[in-house]
Structure formats: structure tokens, C-alpha cells
Amino acid sequence: GESVGLHLPTLSVQEGDNSIINCAYSNSASDYFIWYKQESGKGPQFIIDIRSNMDKRQGQRVTVLLNKTVKHLSLQIAATQPGDSAVYFCAGSYDKVIFGPGTSLSVIP
Amino acid sequence: DTGVSQDPRHKITKRGQNVTFRCDPISEHNRLYWYRQTLGQGPEFLTYFQNEAQLEKSRLLSDRFSAERPKGSFSTLEIQRTEQGDSAMYLCASSYPQTVSTEAFFGQGTRLTVV
Phi and psi for B47 in degrees, rounded to 5? Predict the structure, then answer.
């Protein structure tokens, strides 16, 4: 079956520094890989996706890198802000989205 | 349209009772998904619809769970004979087909507590 998992359950970063959240996956059937952000008491919110035939995609302050050789996905957040504190999920998508367990990002002011 | 809405936000029920949750998706989205999330875990896929057709159900969805989307708009998720292990956040999401967009929009969820 499809499996998406994350390295490190928690990550603390100083405000203004860059954050890197990593993810490993075991099944290559996903058409897309997606990062979601979930704040306390809210549903997950889409951040950025990357098609499986790409290796990098940039958004506003975020960059997603995909290494298919080692089945690794990362989310880089530039100039991390207190509002970035949340749980981040990587997910694979093929018709439906399959989530990993999440990394909790804490931003230290 | 203010996004995906779920009702109720919280539900406390006694073990053995039936509960029903409602999800109203974004109106132009033809896909609707149900997920279950427990503390510290990622959302677990339960089932999804394209319009009124239920296209896939997870092995997690036991016979006590049933979902409907009768007119291709709102959806209901019913749990019969609830058990304490059913306590979780039930999330609904809607989207266009993946060929259009991968972005799924989630509601705030219904938190179920079975006592």
C-alpha cells in the first residue's frame, strides 16, 4: 500500500531562520506530492504541490524539493515567522490524498 | 461561498448510539472526501465521492460507517453503534478532479467523543 512518513516529529526554529521539513515515501504511484499546514483547531491547508516528474517547485517563501531516487521530499520555508508555527504534513496524491504523521514546527521569537 | 463547512463542530455521544455528520463542500467542487484524524496523527482517508458516486472506501471504514452524497452536493457520514475507538476528528474536504487541481479544501472538522 501507499505510505508517506516524516522524519522528526518536532522542529524548533528561530524566527527569521530558514526551516527544512523532510519526508520519506515508500510508494512511487503518486502523481503529485503535496505539503499541508495544520494549525490548532483547524483543518489542513494546502501549501504547495509538486508533480512527480519535477524535482523543484517554488512558491511564496516556500520551496519543495523532490528526490525520486531516494524517495525523499522536503519543504523549505524561508525567513520563518511566528505564524508558520503549525503541524506540517507531506502527502501523496493519486486520485486521493494520503497523509503522513506530521512534523510540528515551533518558531522561537 | 465561504469554504467547506461541517456540522456539528463537536459531538459527544454514548457508546452504542448512532451519530451523523454533515459536510457542505465548496459548491463548484465535484469531489468530496472524508478523513479521520486522531491526536498527533495525520488524517486517515476514509472515502471519497465524485458527484454522487462513491468511488472508493478505505479498509478502515467498517460496516458501521456509511457515507452518502445523494445529490452530488452535501454529504453525510453516519456511524452506527459507536465505540470508544471512534473518538476522533472527522474531516471533510472538497476539490476539483486532480487533473484540474490537487488542492483539497478542508473543513474545520467534527470532533467526536464517545463516552
Answer: -165, 160
